[in-house]
Amino acid sequence: MNKWIGLVIVTVLCTFFFGSFLTAQVNEVKSKDIQIVDAKLGMDVKDRVLVDEDSTFSLNSKVFLWFKVTGATSEILTITWKQGEKSYTTPLNIGGSPWRTWANKTLAIAGDWAVTVTDASGNVLKEITFKVQ
Fold first, then answer.
1. What is the DSSP annotation of 39-73?
2. Which pTM was predicted?
């Protein structure tokens, strides 16, 4: 009887410890499948191509983040524009792989900015820093 109790305890402990490990590995692999293979900032997008690529922008200008993503069929990626403590988010639907898409933001605050692309789990896939003056 003691052998059975010991076997049950060992089985439960192994399931608890190794089950968590295996779940983490699966999530990590899924995140690694989604990749931003190209990303740029600019002043516009014409015919799915970024126009006037730059890293410094005028106050109150509209800035476009253009990127190409692979491995993200039927996913929603989040674009977050950040300046200091302020942040502004936009969800983007990804319809295939590879997929080109873009988001834009009119920037009314001068200073150092960052824009990030994250997956549904919150993993940062890409971050670009830039200035508004």
1. EEEEEEEETTEEEEE-SEE-TTEEEEEEEEEES-T
2. 0.74
Count CA atoms within 13 Å of residue 47 on its CB side: 0
* CA 46 distance to own-chain centroid: 24
pLDDT tens for 33-65 read 899 999 999 999 999 999 999 999 999 999 999
* Domain layout of the chain by residue ranges: 1-33, 35-132
Query: What does DSSP say about strands 35-46 and 61-70: parallel, antiparallel, or unpaired?
Result: antiparallel
The DSSP code for 5 is H
Fold of 35-132: Coagulation Factor XIII; Chain A, domain 1 (2.70.50)
Q: What is the pLDDT of residue 115?
A: 98
Q: So what's the pLDDT on residue 33?
A: 87
The contacts of residue 17 (CB under 8 Å, 6+ apart) are none
Q: What is the CA radius of gyration of the chain?
A: 21
58 CB neighbour count, 10 Å cutoff = 12
The two tokens of residue 27 are 């999530």
